[in-house]
């Protein structure tokens, strides 16, 4: 079992390892003995797989446990579901010293975190992510929230978890499709900041990629830990999303437009991969990246079954970027990888950005 310290205010730990689910109760008891009641928030797919294990552990550790199960799916990441969580906690008589345990993918950790951030103006949340995307991204960093009819993630709060507990065994029941989506963010971390992770992934790709690492416990633990450490490194540096945290948006500005163009039918990780592919091509054309280095990145994306292009036009990319909430003033912050394992923020005017994207598309 690995522990990664997150030095935000307040600070917390991410515990990663095979079998960690059985220790959720004892870990929470040790770190937060004042908590009496916990609400386990989970979805209809994850509940039959893991709810019993977590519930049993919490009961053995003498917590008063209640559960909230919602119908799985992004379409339920809304205020109605969160409101039902609030009502459930109110009915159970939760006080400021009680807590939420989110058990599931990113939809669950986002909503459980938001319910905890807002109930009685803020109670503790313990994040127990079960999807790869939630382990390497959503559950760490303190961003919580819900979707509005107008757009994704438009309402939310920063609320750091009191602990994150990640059991890599959960990845064994995650369909290949969802592993692949998570790999979009994993490859992103490798490209923007982690040459060692990049080498690990190249090696694993040559051994068969996703199908070869499912049962490789050591690899899963190492891969997840490195990703968590990378994200933690960035967010501790920049707790409120205005500086270095932007590098985590590599491939995202274009990716978000592709996601919207597909009416959200294409999953986020797939759109991010396409976005990274497009930015990689544009960077080569703009003389910011060697063709050989670009080829290596695109090959690795392909090796994990991820797409590296899309028929989005430069005009759509600019329009989308101008509407994107990540925009700063009149310029667009473009994250560019000039060498694998490093990244830079390059600010471009909408005109420059249009030319940059068009260059890559015509390359
Ligand atoms: N807060 C953040 O910083 C942040 C970052 C990235 C993504 N997100 C959010 O995360 C969400 C996407 O995450 P996601 O893909 O995990 O979504 P999700 O929670 O919907 O999970 C995807 C699917 O996998 C199922 N599942 C989860 N774990 C499983 C397991 N171990 N075995 C079998 N099935 C399992 C779920 O039931 C669901 O059907 C989006 O809403 C996105 O906005 C948030
Ligand atoms: Zn992302």
> What proportion of the residues form beta strands (DSSP E)?
15-25%
- How many individual β-strands? 11
N-to-C span: 47 Å
The CATH class designation of the largest domain is Mainly Alpha
CATH homologous superfamily name of the largest domain? Dehydroquinate synthase-like - alpha domain
List keywords for this structure.
single chain; 363 residues; alpha/beta; Rossmann fold; Dehydroquinate synthase-like, alpha domain; 2 domains; seven-stranded mixed sheet; two-stranded antiparallel sheet; 14 helices; globular; binds nicotinamide-adenine-dinucleotide; binds zinc ion
Detailed description of the structure:
- The protein is α/β, with parallel strands linked by helices.
- 48% of the residues lie in helices and 16% in strands.
- It has a 7-stranded mixed sheet with strand order 1-2-9-6-5-3-4, sandwiched between helices. A two-stranded antiparallel ribbon has the order 7-8. It has a two-stranded antiparallel ribbon with strand order 10-11.
- The longest helix has 21 residues, at 217-237.
- The model has no long low-confidence stretch (mean pLDDT 95).
- The chain binds nicotinamide-adenine-dinucleotide and zinc ion.
